[in-house]
Amino acid sequence: MKRFLIQFLIILIPGLIVGCGYFQKKDEPPPLPPIEETKPPLTMKSEYFKSFPWSALSKPRKDGNEPDTSTYTIREADTLDKVAESTMGDQSLAVGLAEYNDLSSPSKISPGEKIVIPNPIIGMSSQMLVKAKREKDFTPAKGFDVEMKTGDEYKMKFESNVDGYAYIFRQGPKGMDMLYPARPPQAKKQVKKGKKPKRPEPTLAPDAGKVKAHEPFEIPIGKKGFAYDPKKAGDQVLVFLSLRPIPELEDLKEREKKIRPEEVEDVKHRVKGGEVFSQPPYHLLRISDPNEILWFELNLTG
To answer: Is the pLDDT of residue 275 over 80?
Structure first.
């Protein structure tokens, strides 16, 4: 009898365990892991945020799912000044950061709170310098819509807010030329009578096209400008700016024959859409990747 009871219990106990498991409420799936703090994809520099258009930015999302922002979780002893310094490279941006995050004051933060950091902005300003026919000097910089007359000289003036690479083209009915970077002018050489001059085309330096933050550059380089031709009014100036060299445009720098517009069009298709801020003379783009490109067009109206 005792032996039979032991055998019965051996069968019964596993059955009870299985039965209880069957009638027990099913386990709820484990909660999803919290969204991790997204790290800024670029090395932040305060220069990237100059002329920052806070009012043009969409309201921040603190769930980490906004592609044009990153989030920072406040820690003990953090101040918004420190956050602005570490994430945006400039303490003075703390005021704008507070307003962007709907904080009543830059000092009103607490540990655990999430602060949304907009991704950096790359930008370029573009202006025109004009010298009338009998004038000695170029006028102060003006917009590209400045009126010009036959016999005027003009220069284009550009300034980037980042260390990067600029490529500038001029496109008209007869084709396209690269204005920047441009080969240096050829030096005139004395040639002996009866001999053909040998003047090899000057080559560009390896870093030609590189621009420095807040260091304006003019096209063309030198004392003289372009001669205004009313027949060429309406030509387009295409400007590209990137933190890194653009391989397709790098290949065009040493090109001796005419550039085909479709070669530049291919690069335009890679450009991130939706400029954050475009109000002459400024063209700015908020970026999330160092390979993203700012591109814009200007018209030579005359």
So the answer is: no
Instruction: Share the mean pLDDT of the chain.
Output: 77
Residue 136 above 70 pLDDT? yes
Three-class secondary structure assignment of the chain: CHHHHHHHHHHHHHHHHHHHHHHCCCCCCCCCCCCCCCCCCCCCCHHHHCCCCHHHCCCCCCCCCCCCEEEEECCCCCCHHHHHHHHHCCHHHHHHHHHHCCCCCCCCCCCCCEEEEECCEEEEEEEEEEECCCCCCCCCCECCCCCCCCCCEEEEEEEECCCEEEEEEEEECCEEEEEECCCCCCCCCCCCCCCCCCCCCCCCCCCCCEECCCCCEEECCCCCCEECCHHHCCCEEEEEEECCCCHHHHCCCCCCCCECHHHHHHHHCCCCCCCCEEECCEEEEECCCCCCEEEEEEECCC
Phi and psi at residue 299, in whole multiples of 5°? Answer: -110, 135
At the fourth CATH level, the homologous superfamily of domain 46-118 is: LysM domain (3.10.350.10)
Instruction: Tell me how far apart the alpha carbons of residues 242 and 165 are, in angstroms, rounded to a whole number.
Output: 5
The residue with greater pLDDT, 26 or 9, is 26
Q: Tell me: the pLDDT tens digits for 158-173? A: 999 888 999 999 998 8
Query: Mean pLDDT, to the nearest integer, of 1-24?
Result: 43
Mean pLDDT of 167-192: 76
Domains in the chain: boundaries: 46-118, 121-183+205-299
pLDDT tier, 204 (very low <50, low <70, confident <90, very high otherwise): low
Cis-peptide, bond into residue 220, ω within 30° of zero: yes
The 10 Å Cβ neighbour count of residue 277 is 17
Asked if pLDDT for residue 209 goes beyond 60, the answer is yes
